[in-house]
Amino acid sequence: MNRLARYLMPFAAAAMAAAMLAGCGMKQSFQDASAEVGQFHAALDAGNWQELWSRGDPQLHKATTRDRFGKLLDAVHRKLGKVKDSKQVGWNAEAATGGTFLTLTMQTTFEKGTGTEQFVYRKGEGGTLTLVGYTIQSQDMMLN
């Protein structure tokens, strides 16, 4: 058994190093996604959802129409106002045949209420992130 452990040790060390490097890359990906959320909020506050649509992932464009996307973001902006604070309360990463998808769940405080937002980004070549999906759950938005 001791001989087997010595044989496997180099492989275990290599696997741990690879996992650590992947973790660092994933950490950077989530930092990049968090920056994208900040840019999303800035565009939302400026009423510039068209910029978000034009930079969106082709999968976003297949999932909804430009008009519906605009109506959603106009409603968020009109009913909740500008973003005051947003903090990450959850995350997920999924590697699939269509790419790597990063999901950030944010608890966001707006001028007129709060909401739980979910952002889904696809990590493309060169590490670029494109918005695949956006949802918001907000009783304040429903009641305003």
Description:
With 144 residues, this protein is of the alpha+beta class. It has a single domain, classed as Nuclear Transport Factor 2, Chain: A. Helix content is 53%, strand content 32%. It has 5 helices and 4 strands, in the order ααααββββα. It has helices at residues 2-45, 49-55, 58-63, 66-80, 139-143; strands at 83-96, 99-110, 113-123, 129-137. A 4-stranded antiparallel β-sheet has the order 1-2-3-4. Strand 2 (99-110) and strand 3 (113-123) form a beta hairpin.
Pick out its properties.
144 residues, alpha+beta, Nuclear Transport Factor 2, Chain: A, 4-stranded antiparallel beta sheet, 53% helix, 32% strand, globular
Fraction of residues in β-strands: 25-35%
Total number of β-strand segments? Answer: 4
Straight-line distance between termini:
68 Å
Major sheet: 4 strands, antiparallel
Radius of gyration: 19 Å
The CATH topology corresponds to Nuclear Transport Factor 2, Chain: A
Strand order of the largest sheet: 1-2-3-4
| CATH class category name | Alpha Beta
What is the general shape?
globular
What is the helical fraction, as a range of percent? 40-55%
Spans of 5+ residues with little confidence (pLDDT < 50)?
Answer: 11-24
Total discrete domains: 1
Order of helices and strands: HHHHEEEEH
- Which structural class best describes the helix and strand composition? alpha+beta
Secondary structure tally, helices: 5
Q: Which architecture name does CATH use?
A: Roll
Nearest-integer average pLDDT = 86
